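Reopening this ticket.

The earlier resolution said the output was attached, but the attachment link was broken on my side. Pasting everything inline this time so it's all in one place.
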Amino acid sequence: MNRRYYFLLMIAFVFVLQNCKPISSNNSYIDEKLPGITPELFASSFVNTDAIEINTVFNASFTEMFFTRIIDGSFIIHHSDFVNGKWTAPQPIQMYTNQESESVAIDPSITQDGNTMYFLGVSPEDRLKKGKPDIYRSQKIEGKWQIASKVGYPVSTEKYVESYPVVVADGSIYFTSNRPGGLGKGDIYRAQYLGEGKFDTPVNIGSEVNSEEGQRGTYVSPDESYLITGNTYTDEKGFAISFKENNKWQTPVHFDIGEPLKKDWIYFCPYMSPDGKYFFFSKRYSNPPKSGWKGVIKGEVYWVDVSTVFED
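Inline output:
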């Protein structure tokens, strides 16, 4: 055997060995043990800590993760980047100029290119004036998220609550609002993206999904083929899914998340992983139970195999 042949043989052998190494199928999920049909706490000590955490989402390329943590009364969006095969320690994103004052930045939703974030916001200034939640937007420029600005009318309004934004593939957003003309405490609207940061007049998505009780905590798939709602207004907790047929949303159907729903816990923030494999949701507990966010003492993020959502 000549040296050249031996050298080529060794190169081939090394190549085979390298390609036979087990590849982590959950590297995108911080090397967490992947859940089955029973919900599991997501990323203990990394996302879920002794603080209150809610609403984990990813960008479409699985290179950045976001969630909200409550710190000293403020709801602060944190993020982690996937760099050199590892996730960086979560860091807060400064969304407002006056970050020292209490504020709200929650429920992020990321455009397909990963460079624009929409979220429910209450700035320190609006909080002092007891202003209502609106939809905010932050741009990522040269790898850094910028100070956010309010999405203008006709999406955000001065008198009414706009919340739970979800951006879809073409840049349009779904959100909840209690503006006049709706059916209940909060209806889901869709605003068509016109380009250059502007939106068309929002359109109510219809009575098949919206109701007198109101809808909250919505997720819409990027292709708008289905949506998932979480309802905290009524005693019927949990989540429901609606599919779009012939350009019309169908009546939502509740689905089992894989475990009994806990009494006095609120289930919200439905979200589907970009690869379509896992359903994420959050739940919180307040003491006393009906004290809402003012009395919240626990907030957690869970995930479960997607088969629980689409099970016949």
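Reporter confirms the inline version is readable. Confidence is low (pLDDT under 50) at residues 1-25. Helices lie at 3-19, 124-128, 307-310.
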